[in-house]
Amino acid sequence: MLKVNNVSKYYGSFLAVDNLSFEVKEGEIFGLLGENGAGKTTTFRMILNLLEPSSGSITLNNKKIDYSATDKIGYLTEERSLLLKLTVKELIHYYASLKSMSPDKIDRELDYYLDRFGIKEYKNKKIKELSKGNAQKIQFISSIIHKPKLLILDEPFSGLDPINTNLFIEVIKELKEQGTIIIFSSHQMNNVELFCEKLIILSHGKTIVSGYLDEIKNRYKERKIILKANTSIKELSEIKNINKVEKNADHYELYIDDEKYVQDIFKSISSLKNVTKFEVVQLSLNEIFIKEVEKNA
Description:
Strand order of the largest sheet: 6-7-8-3-9-10
Structural class: alpha/beta
Number of strands: 14
Helix content: 25-40%
CATH architecture of the largest domain: 3-Layer(aba) Sandwich
């Protein structure tokens, strides 16, 4: 288990992380979210023991994380950290050897992942010759090739198309099933919702939302109605208890304060022409994120 206990970090007089606490068990995927500058990267660096907390403690399986735990940890940074003049094979051999892997095992795992991500032909290509998406695949492979017990993923889907994003998600889920502790950060909230079980949202270093995703969503009474009908924003805005109306490409989104208004709104809308969809949904994680960060700005 990874345990972050009442951790704070000051840079001089600036408080970057404010009394942060969370636990992530083996086989759990934990989301550490926040706007730019919220304290996520500082937290990652403290977990990796690259920075010392000003107060509080961080332990992995009840032990302080130090150099002896390096082989058990994988870290995919948001920034590119690839050596551009090396070939893919040379780079992975270099990074994996730092995790105490033998050359034979590195070759086996590298061939497996290159095949898995559909880039076998790039094994002897230099990193500088790769596209952004393929470079991201290599960076991901470098972070997981040693099968870490703790994996930190900072914006892992950067530069990826939807097909390759799904490939990453498949591999991340497999690592979860193998018992890896996974901490995940992304601004792509739709991906966070796909597989994060619990999460924290930070703002200015302080926790503003925390818990299991389902529990967090259930705290909000607000609902959104997805509507397809022959109508207009003006007509919908005149219906009682609808706070906001947004028009998307093929549907309207109606925002209401509470699910208790749904039946009355449905009665009003049933008189419209060509109603082909009326669906009530909870606020998305993206909407919750924006709501809470703006409230705490």
